[in-house]
Design a protein that fits this description.
The complex is a heterodimer. Chain A is an all-alpha fold. Chain A contains 11 helices and 1 strand; from the N terminus they run ααααααααβααα. Chain A starts with a helix and ends in a 13-residue tail after the last helix. Chain B is built from 7 helices and 11 strands. The chains are: A mainly alpha, B alpha+beta. At the A-B interface, α3, α8, β1 and α9 of A face β3, β4, β5, α2 and α3 of B.
């Protein structure tokens, strides 16, 4: 799949933002006044900024209001509805925190909505049978752990964040290792795609057009896959190993901030790989993966 | 609403005969011609006369080589457009309700006025049947020429999809695949019509008729004995060379 910048920024940034807002909603840390202002500004900035970035890959973003209508069937619509609900509830909770009159149940509701938002985001990808690498339970689990882990760093919840980052590391390995062979194991190949597989070995002889097209640009992205192993190592070290290492040395605030920055950078690399490594079955029609 | 209808009154669709398709791409051209000036936004081209031309097509013809275990390889031309699936994953993922399957005839359509151009339906489709128009920013797909098949301003013979009307080899058939007595259903039953990627559970309405087995020409053996090579082994110097080289 094409690793579009807007979607990478959207998923990483809103993941971190909703993760931070989840912790704030739980009252961890229980901040008031100006401290609350800065925490919530960061949370809403990341979550809202991410959502804004997601509109940059739309062909007709001016019709975005319609995207709240199909929550009964569409994960993308559910994500939009949940995001707005989470931001509204936590916005009210934040106003309370700024004025030092906290009504904690509102924070709990907001935290649940924030977690559900990230779940809905992940399900946009995990629901797609056409992309076997994503179509697996590890996708939502990884997205939610990453959100809570990264958000935990931003919320200065060092010990919970460290445990969550370790779990992210385990899940990331599960996702990579189990995802590598999933395309083949699903049994979809050029033979089933064309229905001609029972007759012999099928080979794509001529594409429909000599030029490029939307399908190939969007879904048969190959650039960068050759560096996948190196990028996986870079992503894993920055996202998991380096922050954990730093936090084991010291839990001082500057160290936590540095760990959070490294973690976010690694998550961008991880998310780039999430798209770049994902192979869509439509490539089979073109004799590609 | 982007939930799918439980049943549709009709299952209008195409039956494509891979045995008779000659790969002329006339259906591609006529599809683009009809659909660029009728339903919805035109099918735009980008850099059409430049170095890197591309454009929106609702129908594309691939060509595949199939090498059986024995015998020569076969070349099969393979037109591909929306299969108007019964369990269309492109419909349920749509966040705006722009993508829908019609209850009355099963045609999958996009209401372009509601499409935000997120592209998720194209990701959900295994067949590459949906393409985002780069000029209009909305999703384009085969409409089964919904503006022809019910169009009483057209002569009756033209009330079929443009690709079907155009095909010079009779490789494309249009009809109600939900009606077992229809011509297309009989054709599918007689020729073993097949689904593409059935393992993905999309339940396509469109069917593909597999190529018939190639004829085997019987060998005429009246004169054959006279045409046998007279000497099967070399004699003289070449014969000696052959033997000598064998021994090394």
């Amino acid at each position: 799949m094409n690793p579009a910048g807007s979607v990478i920024v959207f998923t990483v940034s809103s993941g971190l933002g909703f993760g931070l807002l989840t912790w704030l909603g739980l009252g961890l840390p229980d901040v008031r006044g100006w401290a609350a202002f800065w925490y919530y500004a960061l949370g809403f900035g990341l979550a809202g900024g991410g959502l804004l970035a997601s509109t940059f890959h739309l062909g007709n973003p001016q019709r975005f209001l319609k995207a709240f209508s199909q929550w009964r069937s569409s994960w993308l619509s559910r994500e939009g509805c949940l995001a707005v609900a989470a931001l509204t509830v936590l916005g009210l909770f934040a106003i309370g925190a700024l004025m030092s009159t906290v009504w904690q149940p509102l924070g709990y509701i907001g935290a649940v909505l924030a977690v559900l938002t990230v779940f809905a985001t992940s399900m946009i990808y995990a629901q797609l049978k056409t992309v076997p690498r994503w179509n697996h339970w590890s996708t939502p689990v990884l997205f939610m752990l990453l959100s809570l882990g990264g958000g935990g760093l931003l919320a200065m919840q060092v010990w919970p964040a460290m445990i969550l980052l370790a779990l992210v590391g385990v899940m990331q390995l599960v996702a990579w290792l189990s995802g590598d062979g999933r395309f083949e194991s699903r049994g979809t190949d050029i033979g089933t795609a064309t229905g001609l597989g029972v007759r012999g070995i099928v080979r794509a002889f001529e594409p429909p057009h000599t030029g490029n097209n939307y399908l190939l640009k969007e879904m048969v992205h190959k650039v960068g896959r050759k560096h996948a192993v190196k990028l996986r190592i870079i992503a894993f070290v920055l996202m998991i190993v380096a922050p954990l290492g730093l936090l084991m040395v010291s839990c001082e605030v500057p160290m936590v901030i540095l760990a959070a920055i490294l973690h976010a950078t690694g998550t961008f690399a991880q998310r780039w790989l999430f798209f770049a490594e994902a192979e869509h079955v439509v490539g089979l029609y073109y004799g590609k993966r | 609403m982007t939930t799918l209808p439980k049943t549709t009154q009709k299952k209008l669709g195409l039956v494509i005969d891979l045995d008779t398709c000659v790969g002329c791409h006339a259906c591609v051209v006529s599809c683009k011609g009809w659909n660029t000036e009728n339903y919805g936004a035109p099918l735009s081209d980008q850099d059409a006369y430049g170095a890197d031309p591309s454009g929106t097509f609702l129908n594309r013809v691939h060509s595949y080589e199939v090498q059986p275990e024995a015998g020569p390889a076969q070349l099969i031309h393979f037109p591909k457009s929306c299969l108007h699936c019964d369990d269309a994953p492109c419909v349920t993922v749509c966040p705006t309700g722009a993508s829908y399957k019609r209850q009355e005839d099963g045609i999958v359509l996009v209401n372009e006025d509601a499409c935000i151009g997120c592209g998720l339906c194209a990701w959900a489709c295994p067949y590459g049947a949906r393409e985002m128009d780069q000029a209009a920013g909305v999703m384009k797909k085969c409409t089964l020429c919904v503006d022809r098949i019910y169009n009483e301003n057209l002569p009756e013979v033209d009330r079929v999809p443009s690709c079907v009307r155009t095909c010079p080899s009779g490789a494309r058939h249009f009809g109600d695949l939900g009606d077992e007595t229809s011509e297309v259903s009989k054709l599918v039953a007689a020729r073993g019509g097949m689904d593409l990627m059935p393992e993905l559970g999309t339940k396509p309405v469109n069917k593909y008729l597999p190529p018939r087995p190639k004829d085997v020409i019987p060998e005429f053996d009246i004169l054959a004995p006279y045409l046998e090579p007279v000497a099967s082994t070399q004699k003289g110097f070449l014969g000696w060379l052959d033997k000598a080289l064998e021994k090394i």
